[in-house]
């Protein structure tokens, strides 16, 4: 939904359109000043040119939601959150299904799977990986546009028989814009036309230097269809996660992000949230976007009722007053009065964004369309 022409962006940044086109070219995109680019690409450019971007949800810091940092001694390791991106038909859905399928077969839950927008897989050493199972860069971009940075690691899927395609390049740009490390899954290696080396060489043109080429981006040859090397891909993710030392304080009121939401006929508004810090419990009072509620029940990705969910755990929450949007911040607060206060504040921020004509800032430009 968010797009801006290169010229318009240049005007807002007080830079020359031609310089932006040149920078885009270096990023692997051939566009003219009159063509539109999406938000992440725009942000990447803005950052490249040394301007700052303020995200929408930073407004929450003003009212003491999500602002304060946790003391280092309260931090514990948490599982990585992974998003799979890549060109259409390169095998994102197949890969997500294959990874999850392996888990379901091996797991004790008896193969009951539920689509809640995210799932966790367990590794032999008992560590876990969380996958957001809304693949594609639209979801990633939409979430980031709303100030939610939930992804720790991007797995870029490239079909070995097709090579880099426009959406692959877009995905690379989104990932760079987000500052998120990438692992390349070279898929469809079962096909006889597969040419993984060509993929590695094409990646070089976008400054992605995989290990085989002397760089530090991990690449794994896989086949989602034949379920080849899925364990290697999971190991690569685990290794990347170790390097990142992802941590969160589990002992505090939960802060989470909505990854998916819907209205269920029988159960009312439902949201799958990904806990980012703290532990979410049944009975907690929360604000989500500009609505509030109380956790009536929680269901995990295996369809089981759970009483609590810690960092990096995705759960479906019942007890919302309205259906939120993907990317909405979900914060546990001390009581209902506080919940109403925060919800009202957020509503006023939304109203202001809708009515004021945007001054020269990216934040307003995109927030007004969010
Ligand atoms: P997406 O659009 O990226 O989600 O791609 P899909 O997962 O829908 O896959 C697109 C097509 O590629 C489907 O027909 C899949 O069966 C096929 N496909 C996916 N992975 C593989 C693979 O590893 N090998 C082969 N031969 N086909 C694959
Ligand atoms: Mg798909």
TrEMBL record:
GTP binds at residues 86-93, 133-137, 187-190. It comes from the Bacteria. Residues 77-245 form the Tr-type G domain. It is found in: Cytoplasm. Belongs to the TRAFAC class translation factor GTPase superfamily. Classic translation factor GTPase family. IF-2 subfamily. One of the essential components for the initiation of protein synthesis. Protects formylmethionyl-tRNA from spontaneous hydrolysis and promotes its binding to the 30S ribosomal subunits. Also involved in the hydrolysis of GTP during the formation of the 70S ribosomal complex. This is Translation initiation factor IF-2. It comes from Allosphingosinicella humi. The lineage of its organism: Bacteria, Pseudomonadati, Pseudomonadota, Alphaproteobacteria, Sphingomonadales. The gene is infB. The chain holds residues 263 to 632 of 838 of the full protein.
């Amino acid at each position: 939904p968010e797009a801006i022409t290169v010229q318009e962006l240049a005007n807002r940044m007080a830079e020359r359109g031609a310089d932006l086109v040149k920078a885009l070219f270096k990023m692997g995109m051939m566009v003219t000043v009159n063509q539109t680019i999406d938000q992440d690409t725009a942000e990447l450019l803005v950052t490249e040119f040394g301007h700052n971007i303020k995200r929408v949800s930073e407004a929450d810091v003003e009212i003491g939601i999500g602002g304060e940092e946790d003391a280092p001694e309260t931090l514990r390791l948490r599982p990585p959150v992974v998003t799979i991106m890549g060109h259409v038909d390169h095998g994102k859905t197949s890969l997500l299904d294959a990874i999850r399928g392996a888990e379901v077969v091996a797991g004790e839950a008896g193969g009951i799977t539920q689509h809640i927008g995210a799932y966790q897989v367990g590794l032999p050493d008992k560590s876990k990986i969380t996958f957001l199972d809304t693949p594609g860069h639209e979801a990633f971009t939409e979430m980031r546009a709303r100030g939610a940075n939930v992804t720790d690691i991007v797995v870029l899927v490239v079909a070995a028989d097709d090579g880099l395609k426009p959406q692959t390049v877009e995905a690379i740009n989104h990932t760079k814009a987000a500052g998120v490390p990438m692992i390349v899954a070279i898929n469809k290696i079962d096909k006889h036309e597969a040419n993984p080396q060509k993929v590695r060489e094409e990646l070089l043109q976008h400054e992605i230097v995989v290990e085989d080429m002397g760089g530090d981006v991990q690449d794994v040859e896989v086949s989602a269809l034949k379920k080849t090397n899925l364990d290697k891909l999971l190991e690569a993710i685990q290794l990347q996660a170790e390097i990142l030392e992802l941590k969160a304080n589990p002992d505090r009121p939960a802060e989470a992000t909505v990854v998916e939401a819907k209205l269920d006929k029988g159960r009312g508004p439902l949201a799958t949230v990904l806990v980012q810090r703290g532990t979410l419990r049944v009975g907690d009072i929360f604000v989500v976007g500009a609505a509030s509620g109380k956790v009536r029940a929680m269901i995990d990705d295996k369809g089981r009722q759970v009483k609590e969910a810690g960092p990096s755990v995705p759960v479906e929450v019942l007890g919302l007053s309205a259906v939120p949007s993907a990317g909405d911040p979900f914060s546990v607060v001390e009581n209902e009065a506080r919940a109403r206060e925060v919800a009202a504040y957020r509503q006023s921020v939304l109203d202001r964004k809708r009515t004021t004509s945007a001054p020269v800032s990216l934040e307003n430009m995109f927030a007004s369309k969010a």
